[in-house]
Fold these 2 entries.
Entry 1:
Amino acid sequence: MRIGIDLGGTNIAAGLVDDSLSITVRGSVPTPQGADAIARDAAALVRSLCEQEGIRPEDLTSAGIGSPGAIDTSAGTVIYSNNLAFDNVPLAGMLSEALGVTGRIGNDANVAALGEFHAGAGKAFSSMILVTLGTGVGGGIILGGAIYDGFNGMGGEVGHMVIQKGGVPCTCGRKGCWEAYASATGLIRLTKAALEKNPNSRMAAIAEERGKVSGRTAFLAARQGDETGEAVVTEYLSYLASGAANLINLFQPEVLCFGGGVSHEGPYLIDRLKPLVGAELYPVGEKKTALRLAELGNDAGIIGAAML
Amino acid sequence: MRIGIDLGGTNIAAGLVDDSLSITVRGSVPTPQGADAIARDAAALVRSLCEQEGIRPEDLTSAGIGSPGAIDTSAGTVIYSNNLAFDNVPLAGMLSEALGVTGRIGNDANVAALGEFHAGAGKAFSSMILVTLGTGVGGGIILGGAIYDGFNGMGGEVGHMVIQKGGVPCTCGRKGCWEAYASATGLIRLTKAALEKNPNSRMAAIAEERGKVSGRTAFLAARQGDETGEAVVTEYLSYLASGAANLINLFQPEVLCFGGGVSHEGPYLIDRLKPLVGAELYPVGEKKTALRLAELGNDAGIIGAAML
């Protein structure tokens, strides 16, 4: 039995993962302030899960944790994380010490991709890129069954690929990154701009009914046949497709998966996306990258962490 | 002793490559029409090189060939090549038969990257991307000492990454690919546009002296302090930097090398490029991708083919 811990800005989620990569028991606690408190609370959560299963923490095969930020996987440290205000935190070692079992650490997006590859949408494929469409655009690249993160462990920043040079400012400091267009944040920006121009649209009524504009607003309107919503979704999908085609032309992974909030639009999203991506691909033979929705949701992070 | 063959649209170049990855003898013949004639002339070239070295073709360790087009490396076939009008040509097998030694085949850009990695600018590094700035923007990705080309052998199309959505039409059918801006062709387009607006510039005089506009025109003018040339070079380098930063954010290779015609601008190019790329990178720790000029020129293709 292994333990996987998914460290987020709001919660620490953890689960015991068996040999068939199923989560047998899970739990979560709010994320406290500071590295020491995080390691302590994560260890306590793990001990309580072990107790529920009737095993001792030191009998776990391994303990893995997925953390936001820049990770030195071999040293077991978080180099830095804006999100958690971490600066060179030896989190893997802190876990090892608290639990009496070898702790391992990985970047949260990479770890989720590893879980999705082995236990989710990537199961039937030899290589995979997971693209997470949330507040930002994250991702993880799985080649040869393992996380690919470059010579320094910082690769796979799929969201920080400029697709519109000189375009919308990105949180990373560049302009025109894929993240600035294909994230939920980018979608909300497109939606708000369209609402300003079309205050009498069905989409405007939906936003008013719901009291806010979210990543769902334009999709809801488009599904109801609203022209304004349809235009936003069309523009959003066009940006999403361009970045996806870039990734395929570069990596030719056997499958490209989409996870995160926007991916909850489901088949409506992926079915509309496929022909747009197909039209932009560099010509290849008959073996084409499959496009899929991620399947595991938040479990991917726990399962992936357990596999580190 | 191994043989490496670099099949181009104009010439077939070949060389015998020893265990220290040096070319001991080399030669070339014009590329004839048709696959049978190409295999025949390539085999004859190899036999003449072997004769010069006093060895028998069947004593070669291996015979590798780098070919333009889409390659099925495991089947040993060129799936298609516009350049050579090939359609499912079993070139590796044709070579094997003609020479009595196992023939292997790879895409020419990938093969050149393999040579550059093992015997040239990549020698001291663990992973590399080679970007070739010629008529197009080609490239090859070397991870774990081997060519990375995706699950279908078609990965590594670094030039066909959109960096300016809706921008200049690319030969591949998309708009705004890196190739359309960072190739010599893209540089010439920028140069011609600037010449039309600035017919009295030093750059215009240089173009007239030389009787044509080439990828060198703007660089020559910029080196002489011409404002028009400087503006073109600045714009060109800005596009080059954006695509390079994209590749680094995705792959974090230990070294990114530039080859092809435009790279002959040498240190002037790379020294100006480095800070532009640096400014666009996603923040990483102290381990940063090195930027280098390729070292082997056309020999990379021969040496890489010999290593297949």
Entry 2:
Amino acid sequence: MNFHELMNKRRSVRGFTERRLTDDEITKLLEAATAAPNACNYQSWHFYVVRGREKINGFVPKIYRGEWFRSAAVVFVVCTDAGQLEARFGGRGADLFAIQDTACAIDHLMLMAAEMGLGSCFVGAFDEDECRRYLNIPDSRRPVALVPVGEPAADTPKRPRKPINEVVTFAGEEE
Amino acid sequence: MNFHELMNKRRSVRGFTERRLTDDEITKLLEAATAAPNACNYQSWHFYVVRGREKINGFVPKIYRGEWFRSAAVVFVVCTDAGQLEARFGGRGADLFAIQDTACAIDHLMLMAAEMGLGSCFVGAFDEDECRRYLNIPDSRRPVALVPVGEPAADTPKRPRKPINEVVTFAGEEE
């Protein structure tokens, strides 16, 4: 599968089968996440790996409302850990670079999941404070996304994108 | 090349040959960028594609200091375009989701570049205001990264990552 095929295979999956993930599969996903590009190679991220029916059910509905979330085999709670970036770049380090780093890590994780035949979803609309309490996340980290992963329960169509020319402006001329 | 190989091939490249990119290559990179996961499929991004020696040289040193930047074949200036996300989610839409969307787009673009044998770099430490003026970027968009792309002038080693266990916490038990 080349990258064009892989990126088209990747889609937001909201519903999973009963199949659990092995430790090796979870490691493979984390290795992909941490291979992502990131500012100064500080690796300003931390991953909470949440497993087990009971612990995952505890997310719904207080942290995240969707009932489908309960079907996840694993939930990755992705946090920024921006101490070094903030020391070097101030607010721009914490509020921009660390968010970009973690988003690239999630993108990598989701692409690896797709290659492994797994589905995933980038969930940003959740209650950060409740999540922080639930997992005892220290102040030095900020949970910025929930990424449930599992075997897709059904096929999901790829959602169409705007034509390229609607989101692109050309500047300068090739000489 | 499977995804594990591709992600290891992708690295930050800071120096390019004289080879220019074709329109088809640029389109392929933009198609990869826009296939990225994004909040609500609003596609809260806009891409300025900057070509031509003169226009690219104008970035250095006012917008970005590194002299190597001049060697890029193309510079993608990636902006958030967060109107819809902000209307729906307020500040969280503009300051979190749109930054995550654009970072995933950049990650996709860099992976596609790697597959095409091209190099790229995620440049976050640049002067946003100068960049905005240089390209006449409207207030509705925010430039969040410069991504120079070209044929790598030299091999760059992949930088090592921390061991997984340093950036992961497990929660819950598989029953």
